[in-house]
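Batch queue: ligand-bound targets. Current item pairs a single chain with NAP. No template structures supplied; prediction is de novo from sequence plus SMILES. Inputs echoed for audit trail.
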Amino acid sequence: MTRSDNRSLVLVSRPAGLVGDENFEMRVTPAPEPSDGEVLIAVTWLSFDPTQRGWLLPGGTYKAPLELGEVMQAYAVGQVVESKNERYRPGMHVQGMLSWQDWHISDGKELTIVPEGVEPRAMLGVYGTTGLTAYFGLTDVGQPVAGETVVVSGAAGATGSVVGQIARILGCRTIGVAGGAEKCAWLVDRAGFDAAIDYKSERVGSRLDELAPGGVDVFFDNVGGETLNAVLKRIRRHARIVLCGSISSGYVPGSLPSGPSNYFNLCLRSSRMQGFLLGDYRDRFEEGRKAMREWVEAGQIVYEEDVREGLENAPLTLRRLFEGANLGKQLLKVADPPLGS
Ligand SMILES: NC(=O)c1ccc[n+]([C@@H]2O[C@H](COP(=O)([O-])OP(=O)(O)OC[C@H]3O[C@@H](n4cnc5c(N)ncnc54)[C@H](OP(=O)(O)O)[C@@H]3O)[C@@H](O)[C@H]2O)c1
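Prediction returned. Tokens below.
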């Protein structure tokens, strides 16, 4: 096959607020060649994750920041087109930390081979970062027990929508908090949540008083800010608050707010609040994928994908997460697999 040139999106300025096209420049260079031990991957699907905004912060977050002049990194899937690494052969679909470009060279160390029977792009959502974050964050940190009330913020997003469905499977009562009537209707009608609160048109606290008069046992928080504070006011004894994300901050420089004023309820109600990073569970990813696959194949978990197209649209696709434009997992198709599916 003839290899097209490599288009790559390079960081040229750090965004102060929302990510924009002006922060990246498209550069075109010849397609790279793999060296011994490496594989050449044609990037087919990009995942969009709020954490990518954090990688653009000058000081970094849990990992070093992307430097100006570097190609943007991304969880992605692609097809191996040339391999000088014995673990991989041309035609295989692989998932891992790739980048916003057509062709990615990898040493193969952190790649996952897409299992037989799995749609490659599902390795970015329900079997990828967001599905696994939901699984480990809820079961390991939240530890819900049948009969308990579980509240999820960012509930119509990739992570939150799976959290609520796992909680339902485990026998809990589930309440989702999301932005807009359409998302709330999807949560109840399609994802099987018991109730949904539209934080854009309703007061989260007073709606929780109606929907969960006995209080909240587990809160899986993707959002932080006012929603977190409203739930903290309504926790039951021995509640578990799972700190997964704080997207209401926008993950912009200096954005993290001071602590929630209702935090002392954690003491008064003998409760705990615990953060986690998905990477903490790296050794257990196979367990998570197996559980997710059984639930999805049994029809117990449904998921949505919000699909954009075209590498050049990557910056504005990342921005969609912070505008609440996505329902379910935000993806972008870069290309069809060059060696066929
Ligand atoms: N701890 C970890 O290891 C880990 C791993 C993966 C993800 N996360 C975190 O999990 C959360 C969800 O990530 P995701 O990939 O599944 O994204 P997502 O939920 O699919 O998309 C982000 C959603 O956040 C909501 N949002 C955006 N701005 C908001 C604001 N100002 N206030 C309230 N809600 C807002 C929007 O939904 P609405 O329309 O409902 O506002 C948007 O659709 C993020 O906080 C992310 O950082 C953490």
